[in-house]
Amino acid sequence: MLAIQRGEASAYRRLSEQYLPKVLNFAFRLLSDRSEAEDVAQDTFLRVWQHASKWKPTAAVSTWIFRIAHNLCIDRLRKRKPADEESADLPASQGPSQMLERKRAAGAVQAAIDDLPERQRAALLLAHFEGLTNPEVAASLGVGVEAVESLLSRARRRLRGQLETMNAQRSRP
Amino acid sequence: MTGDNPEAMTLDTFEELLDTYGRLESWPERQRSSGAAFAEQSPAARHMLTQLHTLESVLEDLPVLEPTAALRRAVAKVPVRAPRAIKPAFDLRFLWRPLVTVGLFAVMGVSLGLVATEPEGRQTASAYDEEWEDGLALTQLAFASEWVGDEDDE
């Protein structure tokens, strides 16, 4: 980051290559739209480059980058009309029945994640998929650690419950 | 929160910790062992753990996007599209203060060295002063002809 602050493009390219897949998937899982996720990814790294001087060495680079991406996603979610919030842009499920079942479960879980309030969703994505600790998630979302713990608790409980309901429905004769 | 006593942990506490931190390995250290011990004794707690593991395995099945080549190119070109001035590694405008500070300390160090306690055989500070003045006088005599012209033949 210090090299990027000095304007070294090569350092920026190394950083962007490392974090582009993470930012893209984070935005995709938050927005459920590939095109918008790609726009967010581009805007995120544009801001990383343009505002590199704002990064302080006391903050982890990952939490700073995810904070930028999260804020950009929030802006897009707020601009959406309710009719635009459709289900996930998932690939079609094909293959053996077991894989089909897993895909169906994944689709149901994706839909359940989409139904989570935005902050619960963001906290879960950062904690589970990006492996951030609770303090790091808090820094990325701009909230306190206790708030993150509460968000994760509610998100996981809701998803566990929905998965249980789904399993119970499938097991009915 | 409960300590390491599994009997003190309740199912509600276990569920709260499970939902807050996820897998047992991610729990705060002081609650990890009591949580594991509680799960061994409680079928309901084991069921919750199974639910969580199932949830996590399903989450792993969610699609993972790979950035397209076009996206990679667009992101890589950001410095070209939005050029910034390259700052030098050392900004000389901000060096004068540390340089002055170092200089002052150097002068002080020399001065302190001249007045410090000398081991046997070394000259005292006053001797240094006398030598300095002698040297200065000699210098003045040597260069006197430059100042007074041909009149000085010493």
Descriptive account of the structure:
The complex is a heterodimer of chains A (173) and B (154). Chain A is mainly α. Helix content of chain A is 75%, strand content 0%. In chain A, 36% of the residues are buried. In chain B, helix 2 (29-41) packs across helix 3 (43-60). Helix content of chain B is 64%, strand content 0%. Chain B is an all-alpha fold and 154 residues long. Chain B has seven helices and no strands.
What is the topology?
The complex is a heterodimer of chains A (173) and B (154).
Chain A: H1 2-5, H2 9-31, H3 34-50, H4 61-79, H5 97-115, H6 118-129, H7 134-141, H8 145-171
Chain B: H1 11-21, H2 29-41, H3 43-60, H4 69-76, H5 78-81, H6 96-115, H7 125-148
Helix pairs in contact in B: 1-3, 2-3
Quick recap:
The complex is a heterodimer of chains A (173) and B (154). Chain A is mainly α and 173 residues long. Chain A is built from 8 helices and no strands.
Strand segment tally of chain A: 0
Q: How would the global form of chain B be characterised?
A: flat
What fraction of residues of chain B sit in β-strands? under 5%
User: Which structural class do the helices and strands of chain A define?
Assistant: mainly alpha
Could you give a short account of the major beta sheet of chain A?
A: none
The coarse silhouette of chain A is elongated
Helix-strand sequence of chain A? HHHHHHHH
pLDDT averaged over residues of chain B: 72
C-alpha end-to-end distance of chain A: 58 Å
Computed CA radius of gyration of chain B, to the nearest angstrom: 40 Å
Give the % helix of chain B. Answer: 55-70%
The total of helices of chain A stands at 8
Spell the H/E element sequence of chain B: HHHHHHH
Structural class of chain B: mainly alpha
What fraction of the residues of chain A are assigned to beta strands by DSSP? under 5%
Please count the helical segments of chain B: 7
The radius of gyration over CA of chain A amounts to: 18 Å
Q: What integer is the average pLDDT of chain A?
A: 84
